[in-house]
Design a protein that fits this description.
Blueprint lengths: L1 H4 L4 H8 L21 H9 L10 E3 L2 E3 L14 H27 L7 H12 L1
Length: about 130
């Protein structure tokens, strides 16, 4: 970080010093949105202004990171048709889960393996 503050090139330092998978390409991770990185990294990255570097290393379960934000972009709004389909699918899944839970509560439902069912069928056939 001191070298960066003294004018060193981030990409060159990343190539030279980084042990992570992005090191060889100058530390570039590409564009990412919220929810795509581990929380500590995401928080630090989204709190930085475009063109700035983290003041201190950020620790995650993957190690220590020095973060430089090249630019910030506003994510495009999702397509209304896609959102409708996704919401309908989520509601269907939730409704089906609720119905199955209600049925399980009212009935004696047993989950058995195929091998057990086959053994029972073979024994019954004898």
């Amino acid at each position: 970080i001191t070298a960066l503050q003294q004018g060193a090139d981030f990409a060159e330092l990343a190539k030279e010093k980084s042990t992570g998978p992005s090191g060889p390409n100058g530390g570039t991770l590409g564009t990412f949105g919220r929810g795509q990185m581990v929380p500590a990294f995401e928080t630090a990255a989204f709190n930085l202004a475009a063109g700035s570097v983290s003041d201190s290393p950020v620790q995650t379960q993957f190690g220590w990171h020095v973060i430089k934000v090249e630019s910030k972009e506003i994510a495009p709004a999702p397509d209304l048709q896609d959102m409708r389909a996704q919401l309908a699918n989520n509601l269907s899944t939730q409704t089906l889960s609720r119905i199955l839970e209600e049925l399980r509560a009212r009935q004696d439902i047993q989950l058995r393996s195929f091998a057990d069912i086959r053994t029972d069928a073979m024994n019954a056939a004898q």
